Amino acid sequence: MHEQVIYIIGRFNDILLILHLFTILLSFFSRDKTLKTIFKELVLLDRANQAAEVYHLPILDAVDCLSDQSEWNADRSVLRRGVLRAEKLGKQALFFLDGSKNTYVAARLDLVESLLKRGARGIGLTPLEIVTESLECRQEEQHGQ
């Protein structure tokens, strides 16, 4: 088993917006400091209540790490069981899963734990399985016999 634990933290039909605290946490959890996440700052206005809130739009890498063992609905818009290939995982603490019609955002366990300790809201957690290439090949051979 791979030492990393990854969770889907949400499925988004449009975009992922986060608060400033999340941007600070993300910088702490970047293992490779050369992989800095770029953020676009957005201000959302609520004219009816005369309120404004600053959000950040992270520009994340889309990582093609889903194994063929992953299970989808018929049109690949809903990931029913996510299986990641360990050798395709990078050092990113937060990234998009490539290969779906919807936008799935995945995060390492250390980042998820830190977010939850700080009262993060609006995320759902779905654990993902991680397999190595050799394990995946053995499982395919067993199913093929």
Characterise this structure.
This protein is an alpha+beta fold and 145 residues long. It has one domain. It is built from three helices and eleven strands, in the order βαββββββββαββα. It has helices at residues 20-28, 109-117, 133-144; strands at residues 6-12, 38-46, 51-59, 62-63, 71-72, 79-81, 83-85, 94-97, 103-108, 126-127, 129-131. Strands 4-8-9-1-10 form a five-stranded mixed beta sheet. It has a two-stranded antiparallel ribbon with strand order 2-3. A two-stranded antiparallel ribbon has the order 5-6. It is globular, with a radius of gyration of 17 Å. The model has no long low-confidence stretch (mean pLDDT 84).
Distance between the termini: 24 Å
Beta-strand percentage?
25-35%
Low-confidence stretches: none
**SS field, number of helical segments:** 3
Gyration radius, in Å: 17 Å
Main sheet specs: 5 strands, mixed
Structural class: alpha+beta
Oligomer: single chain
- In sequence order, what are the helices and strands, one letter per element? EHEEEEEEEEHEEH
Shape verdict: globular
Q: What is the mean predicted local confidence, pLDDT? A: 84
* Beta strands, count: 11
Helical fraction equals 10-25%
Strands ordered across the widest β-sheet: 4-8-9-1-10
The tally of domains stands at: 1
